[in-house]
Specification:
The protein has nine helices and eight strands. By secondary structure, it is of the alpha+beta class. The strands form two sheets. The chain has a six-stranded antiparallel beta sheet, with helices on both faces. A hairpin with a 5-residue loop joins strand 7 and strand 8.
Length: 247
């Protein structure tokens, strides 16, 4: 019985930690410990467990924590109107109606990206984008955007991943990242999927950190390089507006 009480207490404390982020985006260990009135050693152990499961992320430079992308994955299955991803839907639908292709929203999680929201194209031949899908960060317009605008430590960790695919030239990839930071958007043609193309732009929060990538994808015979350059402006504008809508 005592062991059961201890387990329940640990769960309650872990939930208290997550609730600390209802009014702010980043908190340090001491700040969290003070908010929930626990010793830092206890909070550190709980944070390690939450980080291991992807519910919080620790910034290696600032040593501060923020909510992880498991929260987004859970919210993707919410049917209520207060789903966080629902806030961004109007802009995504507006962009879909403007460019006529499928719109997706991606976040990075370790060595992968996750599609947390999607608005399907109304065209008969379209690229279907299931929410919750995980993809590698080595290929694709959204992946390149997420890596290009990540902090240096995160970018270096990704580029030195021992599981980096042999089919992707790392030197060429790095050159692409520099070009993306210069242009403000990325493109890809059949990098991950035969017959598919995409253009993506970064979404920054109020602190100037990238929080997601906004992508337009479709058949490569329709979404040509010329067409992607043509719509890159509207994509970047939509990403800028979406950044103003989130913390």
């Amino acid at each position: 019985m005592e062991e059961q009480k201890s387990t329940v207490r640990a769960v309650e404390r872990a939930l208290d930690i997550l609730l600390c982020f209802t009014e702010t985006t980043e908190l340090g260990l001491s700040e969290i410990a003070n908010r929930i009135s626990l010793h830092k050693s206890t909070v550190h152990r709980l944070l390690a467990s939450l980080e291991g499961k992807g519910f919080v992320i620790r910034d290696p430079q600032t040593e501060k924590y923020r909510l992880g992308f498991r929260i987004w994955e859970l919210s993707a299955n919410m049917s209520r109107s207060d789903d966080p991803a629902q806030i961004l839907l109007p802009e995504m639908e507006r962009l879909r109606d403007l460019v006529g292709e499928t719109i997706s929203l991606y976040v990075s999680d370790n060595k992968e990206r996750i599609r947390i929201q999607a608005v399907q194209s109304n065209q008969a031949i379209r690229r279907v984008a299931p929410v919750g899908a995980r993809m590698p960060l080595a290929v694709g317009a959204s992946s390149k955007v997420l890596v290009a605008y990540a902090d240096e430590a995160t970018r270096a960790d990704i580029l030195h991943d021992p599981d980096w695919p042999d089919t992707v030239d790392k030197s060429a990839y790095v050159e692409q990242l520099e070009e993306i930071r210069s242009l403000g958007y990325a493109t890809s043609v059949e990098e991950r999927e035969l017959g598919a193309a995409a253009v993506a732009a970064p979404i920054f929060n109020g602190f100037g950190k990238i929080v997601a990538a906004l992508a337009v994808s479709g058949p490569s015979n329709r979404l040509t390089m010329e067409r992607m350059k043509e719509i890159s402006g509207p994509v970047m504008e939509a990403a800028w507006r979406m950044g103003k809508m989130i913390k």
